[in-house]
Structures are given as C-alpha cells and as structure tokens.
Write a structure and sequence with these properties.
The structure holds 2 protein chains of 2 kinds. By secondary structure, chain A is an alpha+beta fold. In chain A, about 15% of the residues lie in helices and about 20% in strands. Chain A has a 5-stranded mixed β-sheet. Chain A has one domain: Roll (Ubiquitin-like (UB roll)). By secondary structure, chain B is of the alpha/beta class. The model of chain B has no long low-confidence stretch (mean pLDDT about 95). In chain B, the strands form 7 sheets. Chain B has a 5-stranded parallel β-sheet with strand order 3-2-1-7-19. Chain B has a 5-stranded parallel β-sheet with strand order 9-16-10-11-12. Chain B contains 10 helices and 26 strands. The longest helix of chain B is centred in the C-terminal third of the chain and has 15 residues. Classes of the chains: A alpha+beta, B alpha/beta. The interface between A and B is medium-sized, with 20 and 26 residues. Bound molecules: flavin-adenine dinucleotide and FE2/S2 (inorganic) cluster. Flavin-adenine dinucleotide binds next to helix 1, strand 2, helix 7 and strand 22 of chain B.
C-alpha cells in the first residue's frame, strides 16, 4: 500500500491507500475521489483524469509519452506539473505524494 | 426529491452504474435498486477486446467501482437477475427470481446485444460473441498461439480482436460483407488505412465476402464457406456483425421505441416516470439537429449524468460532442463527432506515417474527425464542433499551422 493524497482546488484533502501497479487514476476511482471522472478508463483518450502533481514528486512519476503530452497540451488549465493520472503507475517511491485536481474537473 | 422515493435501474452496465453513482453524488437519499442479468457488477467493456483479451488486465480492474462501493453508498445491486416485465400502471418491475420491485422512477439501461449470425452452426461450441466479460472468459482459453481464428465482421470491435489475436500469435482471417472494412462507420481513406495496417501485421482481410455456410464436425465449426465457394478452415469463430438495442422490455410495456427507446434531452421516455439511457436509448443529438442511437462509453456516462440531474431537478449537464476511441496494435484512433452524412472529407497529414486525421464536413460545416495517433487534431475538432465554428477544409489541412493556431483562428472568427 502506498499513501496518495488527493486535494481538490479548494484545498480539501483525501488520503487513499493505493496498490502498487495500479494507476493514480484507478486508486482515485476506487475510492470515489471527486474530480477524476476517467471516462475512458485509462486509455489516454479523454483527459478527464488530469491532475497537478506535487513538484517534488514529479520526477518520480515517470516519463510522459507523446500521446499524453499532446492530450495535456489541449487540457484546461495545464501547468508544468500537469499529468494524466491514468498514466502514472503507483510505486513505493510515490509514498505521500499529493496530487491536486483542476477546478474545471469539478 | 424526498427520501422515500424509490428508483429502480434495469441493467447494471456502464450507463446504469453511472446513473447510480451520479444520483448519490447529487445527494439523492431514497432507495436505489440496480438489477443486472450479468454476474459481475457494472464494468467497462472497452478493454474486453483490448487489454483484457490479451490477458494484460485483471478482472477487478474492469469494474467501474469495487463491490464495497455499492454497500457503502446504500445502492442495492442485484446481479444475476433479469427484469422481465414492466407494469407501468402499477409501477412495478417483475424479476426473474420471482420478486417484484416497486418504483417511483424507473431507469432502463439495458444496453445492447450482439446480432446473431443467421446461419446453421452459429450455435457451435467454438463460435464466440464479443460483448460480455463471460463471453471473453469462455473465449480466452481458446485463444492460443497457432490457432486459426475466423472473425466475421470488420467493425471496430472485430478489428480490435484481430489485433489482439495477432499479438497472441493466432492466424487471423477477417470476413467483411461490404467492399471495405469499417464501411458502416467511416470513410474509404480510413478503411484503406486499417486494411493495410492489419495486412502488415499478418491478418488476412477478405472484403465483399459473404459467409454462406459453417462446416461443422462434432458440434464445432471447422471451416467457413463463402458464397464465392472459398473455404476457410478455422479452429474458432468470432462474430462481430453489429448490435441490437435491448428495447423489448420497454416496447412490451407500451413505451415508444424506434431503433432504441425514444427519449428527450433529459433521457425521459414518453412515460414521465421512465427514463432510458446508454446503448438502448434513441436520443436527440443536439449538435446535429437529429435523433440517433449511440454505442459508446461517452454516451453511456453522459446520459447517466443527465438522468441523475433531471431526477434531482439540477441543471442538465452540457452535452458533449459524441466521441469514441479504438486501440489496434500501436495505433490509437480518436473520433469526435458523427461523420455519417458528410459530403466532403479532407486529410491532414500522411496516412503512411501512422499519424494523420480525416476531417469531415457537411454543407461547409465541420461535423467530425477521425484522428489516428493525433490527439491534437481530435481535441481541436471536438471543441470546434461543440462551438459550431466556421472553419474551412483548407484551414484544417494547412500543415504550416499547428492545431493550436488553427483553433485560435477559428475561434476568433466565432464571436
Ligand atoms: C468489446 C467491446 C469494446 C468496446 N470498446 C469501446 C471503446 O473503445 N470505446 C467506446 O466508447 N465504447 C466501446 N464499446 C461500447 C461501450 O462499451 C458501450 O457503448 C457501453 O457499454 C454501453 O453502456 P450501457 O450501460 O448502455 O450498456 P451495457 O454496458 O451493455 O450494460 C447493459 C447491461 O444491462 C443488462 N441487461 C439487459 N437487459 C436486462 C434485463 N432485462 N434485466 C437486467 N439486466 C439487463 C445487460 O446484460 C448489461 O449488463 C465497446 C463495447 C464492446 C462490447
Ligand atoms: S482516464 Fe481517460 S485519459 Fe486518463
């Protein structure tokens, strides 16, 4: 189990026990975290799982593929620490990571 | 909405599951009973012909929500039970286990079922459908390296299965009655691209191929015989020749149907206490000024949210431009809009590079895009169609401009 913290734009935080190997999106959906709809179920096709990653953890979330980059290019409110949470695989290194959901997803 | 209200949802799939989740999210406090005839809780079908078929995804990861969620959210989920009859006067639903459920509001989310192959032999033990988790679970042990797979029907799901089967080392032949693959759903440029893609990966594609007979031995199909006389020996058969809406439970109760259960923008049928959502519903397509039936995850989720909003007297969510995706080999297709009645198609990029997009116009208006490994084109077109933007075919194919430039230019002209 790896602890991931999901914050919404207003600052409300929810802590979730994520399984190693599942995606940060899947852990959110399992635990009914608002703001991560994940319509395509992780196919990198919808961009409804956009999150801002705690910059300190960003390098540990792995490389972005071209597909994800292009999807993010057109997402609302992209920032340097934007990721599609379905493309981040939970690993022990992510223990305590905080991700924030953009206001547009609420 | 008072707390003693009873909502019954028939069908525990993508749309029904979403409706239940959205109702609770919106604060509905009455009872929710969801009845599904499959053994599993609501799950996602897209991976069935993709990662799940390839054995790359566990069963539980398909579920929309873990089982515990329904208990925690006070949603009564009855799986393995089918609804058999709606009595609209008494406001009850009779179930296959003999129980009768009362409702104040009924949501029909029964989805669709595969069209059956109308040939003797279609019931054989090695002929499979591609619709449910159980379909794939019985199919999977048969999907073994070196076996000869015959796929009947070259729609997206059949082609996805072809790709998965090739990756697993089967010999694959795809039969299509029309003169090109995906004939019903896309343009000749796209069909040609997919035919080449599959041929490059070793799939034999036969178009204009009418399956006339299934040869069987000991209750199993051993070959397909075409009208032309060609015989295609095989070890297993997959049928993907389209789907039919599960509307009978509604039509038998006197609810208006026409290729699906007829609903308005709020997903309501001609009975104000009954809604229909997802694959089984025939709905207004607001971006196109007509009605139609959609078979997609987007549609199921959207109507699930719409129904919850209407029941809760909340504002109707803005309808998105219909969208869909398909994954085959390393090619991701994203479709925005509906191209059916286009009168002009232009291509941005070069199909041979495996990254390009086909933009469809009707009477000079952009109505749809097929974007192959081209998310920027997909997302841009989706926005342009939503805004009913005035954009010319010349502009979208202009590769000296990025999609961002094009989006900005077209939106500026909007005002
Ligand atoms: C293999 C496959 C791949 C797909 N890939 C994609 C894709 O990549 N992208 C995309 O957008 N869409 C895809 N789709 C389509 C998408 O999955 C469907 O549009 C979506 O599941 C529709 O949701 P629904 O709730 O309307 O129907 P379903 O999910 O089918 O749910 C309906 C449920 O109701 C049950 N039911 C029916 N009648 C009764 C009754 N009388 N009593 C009780 N229960 C009943 C059914 O058995 C079923 O479980 C795919 C579909 C399949 C089969
Ligand atoms: S869930 Fe659709 S892109 Fe992440």
């Amino acid at each position: 189990m790896v602890k991931i913290i999901y914050a919404d734009h207003s600052g409300t935080e929810r802590e979730v026990d994520a399984n190693i190997g599942e995606s940060v999106m899947e852990a959110a959906v399992r635990n009914n975290i608002p703001g991560i709809d994940a319509d395509c179920g992780g196919a990198c096709a919808c961009a409804t799982c956009h999150v801002y990653v705690d910059p300190e953890f960003l390098p540990k979330t792995g490389e972005q593929e071209a597909m994800e980059q292009s999807m993010l290019d057109f997402a609302d409110g992209v920032q340097e620490n934007s990721r599609l949470s379905c493309q981040i695989s939970v690993s022990a290194e992510l223990e305590g990571m905080k991700v924030t959901t953009p206001e547009s997803q609420h | 909405m008072s707390a003693d209200q009873k909502i019954v949802i028939i069908g525990a799939g993508q749309a029904g599951g979403q409706a239940a989740v959205s109702l609770r999210q919106a604060g509905f406090e009455g009872t929710i009973t969801m009845v599904g005839d499959e053994p599993a809780p609501p799950y996602q079908r897209p991976p069935l012909s993709k990662a799940y078929l390839k054995g790359k995804l566990d069963r539980e990861r398909l579920f929309l929500k873990p089982l515990q969620f329904y208990e925690d959210s006070n949603i009564t989920l009855q799986t393995g039970v089918s609804a058999q009859k709606i009595d609209r006067a008494a406001k009850t639903v009779a179930l296959s286990d003999g129980e009768t459920l009362d409702y104040d509001t009924l949501i029909i989310a029964t989805g669709s079922r595969p069209r059956a192959l109308p040939l003797p032999g279609a019931e054989s033990s090695n002929v499979f459908d591609l619709r449910t988790l159980s379909d794939i679970d019985v199919l999977k042990p048969n999907v073994q390296e070196g076996r000869r797979l015959l796929i009947v029907g070259a729609g997206y799901i059949g082609l996805e299965a072809a790709a998965a089967a090739r990756e697993l080392g089967l010999e694959v032949t795809v039969l299509e009655m029309a003169d090109r693959v995906l004939a019903r759903v896309t343009s000749p440029v796209m069909s040609e691209f997919y035919e080449k893609l599959h041929e490059t990966h070793g799939v034999t594609i036969k178009t204009g191929a009418m399956l006339a007979e299934l040869q069987t031995q000991d209750g199993a199909v051993t070959a397909g015989v075409l009208k032309s006389g060609d015989v295609i020996p095989c070890d297993l058969v997959l049928v993907g020749i389209g789907i039919l809406p599960n509307e009978e439970i509604a039509s038998e109760a006197g609810i208006a149907c026409k290729n699906g259960i007829l609903v308005d923008r709020d997903a309501r049928t001609n009975d104000p206490s009954v809604y229909a959502i997802g694959d089984c519903a025939h709905r207004p397509l607001v971006h196109y000024g007509r009605d139609g039936r959609l078979e997609s995850v987007h549609n199921a989720i959207e109507q699930g949210k719409i129904v919850a909003a209407h029941i809760m007297d909340a504002k109707r969510p803005v309808e998105d431009v219909p969208w869909f995706w398909s994954d085959q080999y390393d090619v991701k297709l994203q479709i925005a809009g509906l191209s059916q009645d286009y009168d002009e198609a232009v291509v941005r990029g070069e199909p041979t590079t495996n990254s390009f997009a086909v933009f469809y116009f009707r009477s000079g208006r952009l109505i749809s895009v097929d974007a192959v490994n081209a998310p920027a084109e997909f997302l841009t077109a989706k926005r342009l169609i939503a805004a009913n933007a005035d954009i010319s075919p010349e502009l979208v194919v202009d590769q000296t401009k990025t999609m961002k430039d094009i989006l900005a230019e077209a939106m500026a002209g909007q005002k």
